[in-house]
Amino acid sequence: xxxxxxxxxxxxxxxxxxxxxxxxxxxxxxxxxxxxxxxxxxxxxxxxxxxxxxxxxxxxxxxxxxxxxxxxxxxxxxxxxxxxxxxxxxxxxxxxxxxxxxxxxxxxxxxxxxxxxxxxxxxxxxxxxxxxxxxxxxxxxxxxxxxxxxxxxxxxxxxxxxxxxxxxxxxxxxxxxxxxxxxxxxxxxxxxxxxxxxxxxxxxxxxxxxxxxxxxxxxxxxxxxxxxxxxxxxxxxxxxxxxx
Length: 244
What we know:
By secondary structure, the chain is of the alpha+beta class. The protein has one domain (2-234). The protein has seven helices and nine strands. Helix 5 (169-178) packs parallel to helix 7. The radius of gyration is 19 Å and the shape is elongated. It starts with a strand and ends in a 10-residue tail after the last strand.
């Protein structure tokens, strides 16, 4: 049952114990009201942390290199076709042509992140986002995702090797100001690493432009960012659920 996706090995034998007692409600849905009961049924032998947001429950196994993400509601739909020419049609049909999250609760926002990740690939900025991979849990007709486990802001240590940054601070500051990104007030450790991760001014400009045009900038804060392989990444990028 061992599989490999995006260069990340996962074994369903490691994942299944988290779902032996997983049950949907009478409407075949899983909501934030169900999380406490669900967590309470998990075996005491499992060593994990967990967290919730507006749209998902996240299980953080301490012994695995990924997190398990369970959306609170979803659309019964065919798997996403990410081929050229079909992705934007699906995106426009499901989420609106302005790339912003809908207000309705009957959306799978992790699927939305999958779409945003593939849009980021088209813009050449996917390295700043951690990809979500949908997996099939045997016997469960409900979407489940895994995502590489990032290092949190408070746990990050800068590598000892020297950096070869290709963009000067004044240029980066001008880009921040142009996109009103100074208002993000993100931790300095993440900002510094991000600064060193940009290959040039064009990449920085493309990254911040992408944040703006997708609405990701509406919900960019310390709980949604981290580090992966010594690079600054965004781990939760469905955006803030607002009408703006």
